[in-house]
Specification:
Largest sheet: 8 strands, mixed, barrel
Order of helices and strands: EEHHHHHHHEEHEEEEHEEHEE
Number of strands: 12
Oligomer: single chain
Strand content: 15-25%
Structural class: alpha+beta
Helix content: 40-55%
Number of helices: 10
Shape: elongated
Strand order of the largest sheet: 5-6-7-8-11-12-10-9
Length: about 400
């Protein structure tokens, strides 16, 4: 199969693996559409809730396009004053109106039929035309018949291939969904081979001897040694593994299983150290409209939300950690020569003066006062995602380690 043939829903994919993933996403979308009336507000809100809960997981841009479509539909309904609570009543009114219209139409069958009969065109017999016109008519009929046969043949081929593909891709789709659901289950499990258990988990980074990986994360670490921790905020969708590589590009579009995924993964800045722990650990994640990854992080713009979700759990693979929200602000990625506070450059504080300077900068731009402060020697956690209210915008939540 050539590169030009690796196309799904108008999107072209570079590799066979990405193409197959896109086909799995398209099949899943077709199933959702067959089960849900997208024009029905009640069903649309139910689907949106299921997607936010993570019931449907997509692997490629095909799925993310569908995510965006559902999000925009919900956004449009909300502008019209339609919510998840009143969507059912609105849907019932539409159904009653539609039913009334159908009944009204059904009461006038004879008149409609008569109008259709009056408008029906009549054609003469072939013999009524001259020889030249007869040849033109016969030629056109042959062309139409040939076109019809070609369409039937192509449709048959496509149907045959589709059934074959569906069998194969159903298997891969089921396997992928199982892997995602098993990922959370592996957290805290001890499903390791005897060889892995005997080998231990002590590794070396440069000249620093690292401690053993926590038992809770050993199995996940064995599956992917780019795992550096796990981030969880209660009563939110944020409950994900955190990855780290030598650059900050790879996990922008790859998931935990190292497969291409537009959602990407949460990842720790490459310049941060989990052990010995840097002054500030910066975790990045995409702002997905579906709410996945850091899609819900901007809810912290409201002080009331921050008060209810002030505790953040971030465990490195070496030690557990609990943090409390301290500052929430909007920033952006600045030019290298801009002389301005750049939160993403604050990783190590080499002096108390330097630490206090960063804290004052954050406090000055914070959207509200949490009354939580930090002193030199405290450990900081920074969560960063995109903010579309400005060019190269960023939305940032900063928390202090409390245990």
């Amino acid at each position: 199969m050539t590169a030009n043939e690796l196309t799904v829903a108008g999107r072209r994919f570079r590799t066979q693996a990405d193409y197959e993933a896109a086909l799995r996403d398209q099949k899943k979308i077709d199933f959702i559409k067959s089960e849900t009336e997208l024009d029905n507000p009640k069903q649309l809100f139910e689907l949106f809730k299921e997607m936010q809960s993570g019931k449907y997981r997509f692997e490629t841009v095909i799925g993310n396009d569908f995510d965006d479509e559902i999000f925009e539909r919900i956004k449009k309904l909300k502008k019209q004053g339609i919510t998840a609570e009143n969507a059912g009543n609105i849907a019932d009114k539409k159904n009653r109106k539609s039913k009334t219209a159908k009944e009204s139409t059904a009461r006038k069958p004879a008149k409609v039929k008569k109008e259709k009969i009056n408008k029906k065109k009549t054609y003469g017999k072939l013999e009524d035309y001259d020889r030249n016109m007869q040849e033109q008519i016969l030629g056109e009929l042959k062309r139409q018949e040939k076109k019809r046969r070609i369409i039937v043949i192509l449709a048959s081929i496509v149907a045959t291939l589709s059934f074959g593909y569906f069998g194969v891709y159903y298997f891969y789709s089921a396997r992928t969904n199982a892997e995602y659901s098993q990922l959370a289950e592996l957290k805290g499990s001890d499903v390791l081979s005897d060889a892995q258990k005997k080998s231990g988990f002590s590794i070396h980074k440069e000249s620093v001897k690292l401690p053993d990986v926590l038992d809770e994360y050993k199995t996940l670490y064995q599956k992917n040694k780019k795992l550096i921790g796990w981030l969880k905020i209660d009563d939110t969708l944020i409950d994900y593994p955190v990855m780290q590589t030598s650059d900050n590009e790879y996990y922008l579009d790859h998931n935990y299983n190292q497969e291409y995924d537009k959602n990407g993964s949460l990842f720790l800045d490459c310049d941060c150290n989990a052990f010995p722990q840097s002054t500030n650990l910066i975790i990045y994640g995409h702002h997905m409209k579906s709410g996945q990854m850091f899609g819900g992080l901007q809810k912290y713009a409201k002080e009331s939300y921050a008060e209810k979700h002030s505790i953040i759990q971030f465990d490195t693979i070496y030690e557990k950690g609990t943090y409390q929200v301290m500052y929430v602000f909007r920033s952006k990625v600045y030019n290298e020569n801009d002389i301005v506070f750049k939160y993403y450059q604050f990783i190590e504080a080499n002096s108390e003066e330097e630490f206090n300077s960063y804290m004052k900068e954050m406090e000055a731009v914070s959207l509200y006062d949490t009354e939580v402060t930090a002193s030199f020697g405290d450990r900081i956690l920074t969560l960063s995602t995109c903010d579309y209210s400005q060019d190269d915008g960023r939305f940032v939540v900063v928390a202090k380690r409390i245990k």
